[in-house]
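Render this sequence as a predicted structure.
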Amino acid sequence: MSGSNESSFDIKQFSADQVRRYEASGGTDGRTVRGRPVVVVTGRGARSNQVRKFPVMRVTDGTRYALVASLGGSAKNPVWYHNVLAHPDVTLQDGPDVREYTAHLAEGREREEWWARAVEAYPDYAEYQTRTDRVIPVFVLDPR
């Protein structure tokens, strides 16, 4: 997104609407963004400890998942990044399947492997990385 459209796009409202559709349908509606699959993650707020839910693009190796903190290539991390750092135990809903995971920040070779998988799942991530000086963080979710 660029120009005036960027400032008029409300990511918080978009995310809330996506989560509502996803959960209200039991994971059968709201499962895609721009033609690519999404999942819904539930965790806790870093400061508030309140339940927080957010959709992310579906990046998986079949057992584990990745959360890519791109925020469209913004200069800063999404709010959920700080929440997952503070409270790494999360629940992920992939369609009707809901499971518990523990997240860790991927680094080095692990991050490179998951980044490649993420770009394959959602090619826009490569473009987002060109928009920012930060290395876009990638969390890996291990089943609990």
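Summary. The chain is about 35% helix and 30% strand. The longest helix spans residues 11-24.
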